[in-house]
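From: lab user (bench 3)
To: helpdesk
Subject: output format question, protein + S-adenosyl-L-homocysteine

Hello, I'm new to running complex predictions and I'm not sure whether the block I got back is the full result or only part of it. Here's what I submitted:
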Amino acid sequence: MKIKRPVETGQVIVYEITGIAHNGVGVGKYQGFTVFTPYTVPGERIKAEIIQVKKNYAVAKMLDVENGHSQRVNPSCPIFKECGGCQLQHISYETQLALKRQQVVDNLERIGGFKNVLVHPVLGMKEPWRYRNKVQVPIGIQNGRTVAGFYRAGSHEIIEMDQCLIQPEESDQAVRLVKQLADQLGITPYDEKKHQGILRHVMVRTGIHTQEMMIVLVTNGESLPNKKEFIQRLHNSFPQMRSLIQNINTKRTNVILGEKNKLLWGEPVIYDHIGSVRYAISPHSFFQINPVQTEVLYEQVRKYAALTGEEVIIDAYCGIGTIALYLAEGASQVYGVEIVPEAIRDAKVNAEINGYTHVHFEVGAAEKVMPRWLEEGVYPDVVIVDPPRKGCQPELLDAITGMKPKRLIYVSCNPATLARDVKYLQEQGYYLQEVQPVDMFPQTMHVESVALLTLR
Ligand code: SAH
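Helpdesk reply: Thanks, we reran it on our side. This is the complete output you should expect:
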């Protein structure tokens, strides 16, 4: 059967944008048919040209805004559209936050069937720029010239980038300088197609609170021409550099870092803290990307956990143990579980740095380890889960409901799986009290939420 669609490629339509999809693209209906148009703002009536028609929807390119929208702003970054790293720079920050909250509300209602849940306004940043503490810039060669920048959205073409407004200015400077020095000292750029040349990536990590900086040169082999001079000149220009590392990656791969690190200068790690907890950060360490908002997020978790010092708590999907350690002072026993062994190794180091002896970390799949803990008689008062986008496994949720913690705090980077899992938990006797979204990644579509559930 042929379905009649009201639009065809090349057609120019006028229609209203009523919402935003999870990838940040504006969406609305034209004669009942869904049409997506990037770089639009809900509330706008736009003129757009249809560029693609699919079975259930069409995609259009914006030509004009018919009703000027007060929440539309000029994107601050000149390569906003090519880069794809940010999706919302054309929308005022205030509206970005409102849209993120709406995403959470809509998902809870549509997927979870929750109506009238208390979803607080999103906790945003005072200054929603320059927040990333880790920057990874690919180096390449284009028309015989060294380029450093970002991959064009959905490709491996490098777009030249002078600065990125969501990462610190010093990181931009460091990348520019490394590129300059490499050019002057014969450290050739890596050619991905031929698998030749030396410098593949520059990674810069900064301790936002400590101002310490680590620079990592990812090279295609051990050789680094004019190494001494390179180190000397970089060191002279960057007094805040604490650590300079060469990482060797000779594989044909999209994975940025290779396994081997060589310390070129300074310390093998830098430090930063979240709240009063101190962390060592190496090139391979996981660490929260926006530490300022991480503190806001963890403070919310602390509030919901309402610890008195007596509680046993579990941090599932604990990464390098950041939530567990943040709460450790207020608890009598802390358990953390995480699937990546290197993360648990870091978690144990971080527990030690901070002098905690009542924190136990274990490597494994949370959905396997938690049921075993239940069998062994671990009965936590508070459980925190912070799963990846796909959410929690039912086996894990069953283990939690078997443990019967009074409070369950669900930290989520995907409101759709949050809604699905909370619906299941509600059926098992947990009540969704409230949700506090936190903006971890301003200018992008990412939305993080903290949900509090209590045992009925
Ligand atoms: N709570 C941490 C990290 C959360 S990110 C923080 O705030 O920094 C989610 C983590 O879940 C990642 O570290 C990922 O490696 C881990 N993970 C993914 N699947 C898992 C599983 N099945 N069991 C345990 N951990 C898992």
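A quick orientation on your result: Residues 12-67 form a domain with the OB fold (Dihydrolipoamide Acetyltransferase, E2P) fold (CATH 2.40.50.140). Let us know if anything else is unclear.
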